[in-house]
Amino acid sequence: MKRKLILLAVVVVVIGVGIALWTVLSVATSNYVQAEKIDSLETVLAAGKVTGKQVIPLGFTVAGVLEGVSVEEGEEVNEGQVLAFVENQEEKNRVLQRANALEIAQTQLGKIQTTDYQQALENLKQAEVQEKYARLEYERTLNNLEVQPEERLRQAEINHEAAQTIYQRTLELFNAGITSAAELEEAEKNLDLATSTLALAESDFEGRFRETEQAERSLEVARSNISLAQGALDSLTGEMLKLARLDAVQAEILLEEAELAYAKTYLKSPTDGSITRVQASPGEFVQPGREILTFIPFADVTYVEVQVDEDLTGRIVLGQEAIITSTAFPGETFPASISQVSPGIDAARGTFRVRLALERLVPELVPDLAVFAEIIIERREPSIVLEQRFVFRQEGKTFVNTIRQERVYPLEIQVDNLGNGLVLVREGLEPGDVVLTNMDLREGQRVRLAAEER
Length: 454
Prior knowledge:
CATH architecture of the largest domain: Orthogonal Bundle
Helix content: 40-55%
Low-confidence stretches: 1-24
Strand order of the largest sheet: 2-11-14-13-12-15
Number of helices: 5
């Protein structure tokens, strides 16, 4: 038994000596890079899509059955071009009927007109036109007052009351030690925002009242002018001419109302641009305000919108440079800069929205095309920068393999992560030092340098 143990020990020693001799005598080959100081950039990569400076939802102001959509997604359109329309035969017939009625009234008026009262008639017509527009403006302000500001004010009051209730409850829980200071601060911020929104809604509501009062005064003045013009005309004309004139004016107003109702059945392009989404199909019943199409106006440059991690809040600022790429155009890059940073955080994603403007208009980058943006957060002084794949960690420390007396020598370094597979070496390496790129080498192994990697 002792002899077997002695033989086993001898075998182990021989194997160990053999491994040591092989490690010392074997020669590996490795490519290398030579450390040098270069300008370094700290960047962040974000994904997003091509968009426009404005994204405008388009919809009808009237309800109806969608009869036709004249455009497709991605199509370029001109200002005033018809994009879609709802069923409108009834409105069309009304326009024809009222146009015929106006023609009859105007013919009758022409038969009884004389040159003696032409000027007086013209004065009255102008006064009536002014009164008509003053009345329409007054009715518009009343409609705005009844619908938009009042609804916004009501919603703002509801939101403010809810925010106040949440804040009081959070404060009670905070005083009881149940919630954190951060939750209390968030509730307070939400209350401040709701208070500001309520103040704006109240101010807007009061402003609409003032606008309505001004429109009412203008209407009163216009009506007074009509009375004066009417008196002048009555001194020159008889009752028949007066009735004929009233019939013609009324027929004209009714025709304008019918034409306006007919025009509302068509959805037209507000300016030159492109359609990015079509969200309804013929045969559907559409309500007022429902988004039918998504429209992006043409711009002098191409815009990109990306989502950036919320941890970078405060580090992403206006004017920072970026490089845009897309898998649709491999190898191509498009310089850009940050033109807008959203102040809000998307809680579900943990990101915030950043808009970038390219240096020029790039037609091939069509709306909604997926892109990537490499945003330059910081430019640093010339430093040694290595690819992260040449660096390894051991026992909580960072190393690179270099060469000492023709043997592999692990050298401890201190680094900062720059992102995108690069690290900045703060300590441990000097310009001219050799970094071996073969990561299969062992410490102390003989090594022969091959080609320098570029």
